[in-house]
């Protein structure tokens, strides 16, 4: 990866009408209903964008959507990239660098995750307070990273305090359960064993998923304020573990998504 490839992607998207986004949004698995709230001005499929990876997961649409939400210009990733699809960390985070190149000032991320904390319930939301990277690598571990910013990025506060405070207030206002916890990011695509769930609980994880952390690391590298919310789609109690399918996970995510949309919409309004 080099700065010139990002410039090419950015210029292509500007010619497609994506000109002045203020907020970038990444939609997680089963979380696409937010697009119904946007006055759409432009849609560009990933396979048309120079240097963009292609989405391979069937429930990830694979396009950038640009429009207006709550009076703000937003650019939305409908479909993200994962290690389990065979991508590397620079592929996964390339769209974040492109959205930053287009001019976004804030980044909002959503994901579907399993609840490790046994006091959390399926369908609840969790605001990420911190994370544990168990994906075995870093999106900053490449030779010419210094061309994009400082190599050694501070991660003492990876999630923006101001946006987190706003989301907590909005959740209280709307009587939405919004836990605050630690997200562990694993490779996948297999779900965890009982022993792995016990391990995750011991090391301090409240939820587990297969995304988000690479994008958050790169946002911090770009000094781009970021916030992330997990929709908790299953309860991962190793002593009472039941089989779960991706179909069920997506169904729970879709049912809980309106709560996340309410929070994201009102947050965008006050940014």
Structure description:
By secondary structure, the protein is α/β, with parallel strands linked by helices. The chain has one domain: Nucleoside phosphorylase domain (Rossmann fold, 3-Layer(aba) Sandwich). The protein is 31% helix and 24% strand. It has helices spanning 3-15, 89-102, 161-173, 194-202, 213-221, 246-270, and strands at 23-27, 39-45, 63-69, 72-78, 106-115, 125-133, 178-185, 207-209, 226-235. A five-stranded mixed β-barrel has the order 5-8-7-6-9. Strand 6, helix 3 and strand 7 form a beta-alpha-beta unit. Helix 2 packs across helix 5 and helix 3 crosses helix 6. The longest helix is centred in the C-terminal third of the chain and has 25 residues, at 246-270. The model has no long low-confidence stretch (mean pLDDT 94).
Question: What key phrases describe this protein's structure?
Answer:
about 270 residues, alpha/beta, Rossmann fold, 5-stranded mixed beta barrel, Purine nucleoside phosphorylase, purine-nucleoside phosphorylase activity
Describe the structure concisely for a colleague.
This is Purine nucleoside phosphorylase. It comes from Imtechella halotolerans K1. This protein has helices spanning 3-15, 89-102, 161-173, 194-202, 213-221, 246-270, and strands at 23-27, 39-45, 63-69, 72-78, 106-115, 125-133, 178-185, 207-209, 226-235.
